[in-house]
Design a protein that fits this description.
three-stranded antiparallel beta sheet; 10 strands; 5 helices; seven-stranded mixed beta sheet; alpha+beta; elongated
Amino acid sequence: MAHEVQTMAYVDATPWHGLGNPLTPHQPIEVWQKEAGMDWRINETEVLYSIAGGNGLHLKNNPEHKVLFRSDTALPLSVVSKRYKVVQPADVLEFYRDLVSVGGFELETAGVLKGGKKLWALAKTGQETLLRGNDQVKAYLLLATSCDGTLCTTAQFTSIRVVCNNTLQMAVGASSGAVKVPHSTAFDPVQVKQALVR
């Protein structure tokens, strides 16, 4: 399976694939947004399709669906139902603002996968343990989402340092205790944080 990383930023150890922008610790959310390549929006427009007939080309629309596309490149991300609620790249990072400023968390990785179809951010919680054999295990808080319907907006604690699509799949695959928000529901960061600590 490919790493699928388009852009990312990180602190501490360089990811296995060698990609991404290294940052010094304790950078503000705005720096993370730029350096992780998350400084664009997910826009939407109606679905149009063409029908060739005897009188030329005719454009029709599909009122039940919409096209999601990147604001910076206009590249399409997916076709989704009208009910689909988008979580913006900036929202993924904003989720951590108060956790970083008063909660003792520190962003460690964030990035864009599959051309923008998946987004994630990961913060160290400050908790870690040492296992037999001197293996150090750190606790992280992950927030990941997709705009192609392949992943609910998912918040969870994990011991996996997410740096690519492979590690993201491993983290969300072991999702006991995860808070999942389907894209038919608006993402409310306050409710998600409350659900995580219950």
